[in-house]
């Protein structure tokens, strides 16, 4: 209950934040994305992001941390590098990348391919974390909730290997310029110590035009939190 209360409280503060838009930002795996799953956002050429995220794994009393950075290399290509610490003294370097094959249009979804872990450092079997993900707005650009304009409810579905093994899916609801609610499902992931299906929920909120805060409940038990900075262009 304490973790659910913390998420509710931070969501309330996020909606009341004073500036910035809750645009794309690094995920808990450092590459731009949702909570653990990738989205279809690719950093613009010359844009840069940096992040710190942590997951408190309740059953093992461990705190997983990741510090990383990403850069937009071409209009469709983003590359990133991160340092992952599983709280066991064995830090790993994580290399990631995303390539936008198709941009979303009113008639078709976006298609993005990429890797969250090229060398398989996050997977117990050392399997690389490659994926393909499809994204599409599920509602009109402006709907109305409680008398206030909101942006689209967006859906993602994809398939991956390694830390994103099998099918995964996510829903991203931008409830205001300052906050987004995210829910996602991963068929199998061993990041937090199991190989079962994982369901995550969280909120991303704007602190300034460049700073984002993340708060999430990972696998219904583990509290995740983080902060990221995104600079559009050098």
Structure description:
It is a single chain. This protein has one helix at 2-15; strands spanning 48-57, 62-74, 77-85, 92-102, 110-117, 129-137, 143-145, 148-150, 153-160, 165-174, 179-188, 198-206, 211-218, 222-231. The protein is built from one helix and 14 strands. It is mostly beta strands and 234 residues long. The strands form two sheets. The chain has a twelve-stranded antiparallel barrel. A two-stranded antiparallel sheet has the order 7-8. It has one domain (2-222).
Brief descriptors of the model:
single chain, 234 residues, mainly beta, 12-stranded antiparallel β-barrel, two-stranded antiparallel ribbon, 1 helix, 14 strands, disordered N terminus
């Amino acid at each position: 209950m304490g973790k659910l209360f913390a998420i509710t409280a931070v969501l309330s503060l996020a909606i009341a934040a004073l500036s910035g838009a809750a645009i794309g930002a690094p995920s808990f795996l450092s590459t731009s994305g949702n909570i653990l799953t990738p989205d279809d956002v690719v950093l613009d050429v010359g844009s840069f992001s940096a992040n710190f995220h942590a997951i408190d794994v309740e059953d093992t009393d461990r705190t997983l941390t990741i510090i990383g950075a990403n850069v937009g290399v071409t209009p469709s290509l983003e590359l990133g590098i991160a340092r992952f610490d599983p709280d066991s003294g064995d830090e790993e370097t994580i290399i990631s990348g995303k390539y936008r094959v198709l941009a979303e249009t009113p008639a078709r979804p976006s298609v993005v391919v990429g890797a969250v872990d090229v060398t398989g450092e996050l997977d117990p079997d050392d399997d690389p974390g490659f994926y393909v993900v499809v994204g599409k707005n599920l509602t009109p650009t402006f709907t109305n909730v409680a008398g206030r304009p909101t942006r689209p409810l967006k859906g993602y579905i994809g398939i991956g290997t390694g830390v994103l093994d099998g099918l995964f899916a996510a829903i991203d609801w931008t409830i205001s310029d300052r906050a987004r609610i995210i829910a996602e499902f991963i068929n199998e992931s061993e990041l937090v110590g199991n190989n079962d299906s994982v369901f995550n929920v969280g909120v991303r909120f704007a602190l300034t035009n460049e700073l984002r805060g993340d708060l999430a409940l990972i696998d219904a038990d583990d509290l995740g939190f983080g902060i990221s900075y995104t600079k559009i262009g050098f």
